[in-house]
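Q: Sequence in, structure out?
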Amino acid sequence: MNNQIRNFCIIAHIDHGKSTLADRFLELTGTVSHRDMKEQLLDSMDLERERGITIKLTPVRMDYQKYILNLIDTPGHVDFNYEVSRSLAAVEGAILLVDATQGVQAQTIGNLYLALEQNLTIIPVINKIDMPIANVAKTKEEIIHLIGCQEEDILLASGKTGAGVAEILAAIIKQVPPPADNSKKPPRALIFDSSYNEFKGVVASVRIMDGELKKGDKIMLMTTHTPAEILEIGYYKPKFKSAEKLANGEIGYVVTGLKEVRECRVGDTITTREAKEEQKGLTPLPGYKEVKPMVFAGVFPKEGNEYQELRDAIDKLKLSDSSLYFEPEHSQALGFGFRCGFLGMLHLDIFQERLHREHNLDIVITVPSVAYKVTKSNKQEIIVHGPQEMPEPSQVISTMEPWMTLDIITPKDYVGSVMGLISEKRGRYVNTEYLSAGSDQRAVIHYEIPLASLITDFYDKLKTVTSGYASMNYEYKDYEPTKVVKLDILISEEPVEELATLVWEEDAYKSGKKITETLKESLPRQQFEIKIQAAVGGKIIAAERLSAYRKDVLAKLYGGDVTRKMKLLEKQKKGKRKMAARGKVEIPTETYLKVLKR
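A: Exactly. Output:
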């Protein structure tokens, strides 16, 4: 049986045609009838279909020429490469898909390295050969430069017309090794994904590494020591198709009956309670390295009474998105909410959109920031996720920030513009490689850059300076020393914690000026003058004043001596001073949002 199984996934840069090629596989193998077929069938979320990107990995089982082919369709964007790394741990081979019109892109290289780390068999495929602007010869040259294969090893296909798809399936059967035969060992299955189903509870996607699992088995999740029972077992076709058992090497799903989403963690190992008791030395399978969130932001419900709904919604999203991190947080202005960690800005954007669509929640998100390592004067090292956690300057010995390795692929004509942009963003140049020869040569520029430079508008600016041709991939490198200060915002000499931010020392004045100007435009005027100030460590670095409403106290005068006028104006001035000393400024939520957007 094992010899008939092939487990593989498709890896590629975003928008190179993975999901379309998967559609052709499903058609050719007869897994989905012609009547049920639609574009991007494996992209089940409306959000995926609208944006044309894959967000979640999706497994599917195909029967073809007496073989069982298990495909996992993976995302292409760098923010979701944790999904890719989990897919790779469950398979033996990978199709490296490259678009003939765009050539090798930054995430093609990033995902390829992930596959090589897992020692997978790589099958290079050039897609979209039917396009009028396809440049197959140049793309072949780039792939050979990248993986050192022979020209005849590269397959040509079109996910749109179906050309070359049968040849890819034949190559998978021939080149991808079958799973190792561990059927005699005690059962162990790796959870590579999980989701919450309203009717079935928690559903775990598993790859059976050893032995087999049957319906009705009493099981245990080895890391959390959670007992459960297999209420249903089966595989994806791509809908749920129940079976009696899943054997060694197969990929499918297990309905655990668990109602608590936290108990079924991705990367955990399922075994039977019987095997656990008999085999004292039975250890969990090597899971996945704990992913480190890089971008942190506060997430608050717009309506304060929706806190519990927000908590439940984030819990459910966490189950299908194991790279999400969250912990409770309280803000004086925005109420109760959560401090959430994301892998990047697209991850944050998708999270926000999914909360709105899937759970009908409107949320407020605070300024995203990165995690800093701070060493205090008592030698204690802490991780600071936001300005509120930053100690006083006198208590700080050193601060370190995360740096990334950044790879940018761009046509050589734009190399100068890209270098100019990155030097503005405090990047360090490493080296440049060229992927191919000729007039339309493309360069791979390697840089090191602080993560704080990447998380705001870097990608938009990169696309602007390269007319949309550049692509980028980044990975965490290490923490390096930096000079970061907490920028406090004072309104009527009262600090407003929610508007405080962490900024580089040399950018403090520019940021302070920008925030004070925004507040001057958006704060409602009062009966007294409002002072708006930006301060670093007690020193004011930028200030604005919002003038008071003026009441015409002279309107009732119809004549007489000038001293009557002066007396009334003096009385008004006194009153304004009193109000300024005692008055409180209520900051509306809209004002917070304007500052956050700026």
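Residues 562-582 form the longest helix (21 residues).
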